[in-house]
Write a structure and sequence with these properties.
This protein is α/β, with parallel strands linked by helices. The protein folds into two domains: 3-146 and 301-320, Rossmann fold (3-Layer(aba) Sandwich), CATH 3.40.50.1370; 148-295, Rossmann fold. Helices cover 39% and strands 14% of the residues. It is built from twelve helices and nine strands. The protein has helices at 3-7, 25-43, 67-78, 99-107, 123-130, 148-162, 180-191, 221-225, 249-256, 260-263, 286-289, 296-320; strands at 56-61, 82-86, 113-118, 136-142, 169-173, 196-200, 216-218, 230-233, 271-273. It has a five-stranded parallel β-sheet. The model has no long low-confidence stretch (mean pLDDT 94). The protein binds phosphoric acid mono(formamide)ester. Phosphoric acid mono(formamide)ester is lined by residues 65-69, 141, 150, 275-277.
Length: 321
């Protein structure tokens, strides 16, 4: 069963959230609009609504995370869920328990939603295929495949600062090949009818036939940044690289690092984004990361409202079933 079939109910509502590919513009816009309504909750002194009261959310991070794990946890708390954050390093996984057995045991504790990050592409899909009825899975990043809530918080950030996607030029710069974030962003930007989506990278860090993803490919950073409204920088995913794809980090920075000087090629009101974690002095100059055009910390803040939106939309059809 495809991710699209698996993640939607027969009436087109979200049952799981596994991948952006195959979702409709209406559904993505609904996520953004719902997140907008939750920003007021996150700004109040009592930051709670009872949407997930009585539900239990399990956070399963088999890979390191700061932003995604923390903001999923805060989102679930603000929706009044009970949270189980399994420490994988001290769990039975280290004794060799399989993913499926871990799932079966946690399901026996009446978990309602699983948030899963795993190094293997397809792991969230695998979980979703095996959970019982009424149980949902949210993909918090699977291998090189997808990171759908990251893409949605990035779309939320772009819409907040730039409003109309159809008039925008968006450039994604860096290690596109190994990036689950880039894949999900490209799908989301195209579904939301973005004027032009560019990818800027050396040929060794691009997937084969990158144009087939619906992007314009540039190998020269200065050329690719010309007149863009949004610059999204990506980390070099060294942990996923096999073989020598780059001459050296300093050479990469010389050719693809976003400096204040280079940023002048973009529109004067362009925003700079990065999903994090960022490596200062490798893909981005510190002064740009902390500068007036950077919205990197806003992305983190909006991650809470966007994850609240997705969880609340998933809870709806389960309630109605
Ligand atoms: N953007 C992102 O996924 O960051 P973390 O690895 O810190 O969760």
């Amino acid at each position: 069963m495809s991710a699209t079939e698996l993640q939607l109910t027969p009436n087109g509502r979200l049952r799981h959230f596994l991948d952006i590919e195959g979702l409709s513009r209406e559904l993505l816009t609904e996520i953004l609009d719902t997140a907008e309504s939750f920003t007021s909750v996150t700004d109040r002194s009592i930051k709670k609504v009872p949407i997930l009261r009585g539900k239990t959310v399990a956070n399963l991070f088999f890979e390191a995370s700061t932003r995604t794990r923390s903001t999923f946890e805060l989102a679930a708390q603000r929706l009044s869920a009970d949270i189980l954050s399994l420490d994988i390093n001290t769990s039975a996984t280290v004794k060799g328990e399989s993913l499926l057995d871990t799932l079966r045991n946690l399901e026996a504790m009446q978990i309602d939603m699983f948030v899963i990050r795993h190094r293997d592409s397809g792991s969230a899909h695998f979980f979703a295929q095996h959970v019982g009825p009424g149980v949902s899975v949210l993909n918090a990043g699977d291998g090189q495949h997808a990171h759908p809530t990251q893409a949605m918080l990035d779309m939320f950030t772009i819409r907040r600062y730039k409003q109309d996607f159809t008039r925008l030029r968006v450039a994604i710069v860096g290690d596109i090949l190994h990036s689950r974030v880039a894949r999900s962003q490209i799908h989301a930007l195209n579904i939301l009818l973005t004027g032009e989506v560019r990818v800027i990278a050396p040929p060794t860090l691009l997937p084969k036939q990158a144009e087939s993803l619906g992007v314009r490919v540039f190998h020269d950073l200065d050329e690719g940044l010309e007149d863009v409204d949004v610059v999204i920088m990506l980390r070099l995913q060294k942990e996923r690289m096999t073989g020598a794809l780059l001459p050296s980090e300093s050479e990469y920075y010389r050719l693809y690092g976003l400096t204040a000087e280079r940023l002048k090629r973009a529109r004067p009101d362009a925003i700079v984004m990065h999903p994090g974690p960022a490596n200062r002095g490798i893909e981005i100059e510190s002064s740009v990361m902390d500068g007036p055009q950077s919205v990197i910390l806003s992305q983190v803040t909006y991650g809470i409202a966007v994850r609240m939106a997705v969880m609340s939309m998933i809870a709806q059809p389960q309630e109605e079933a």
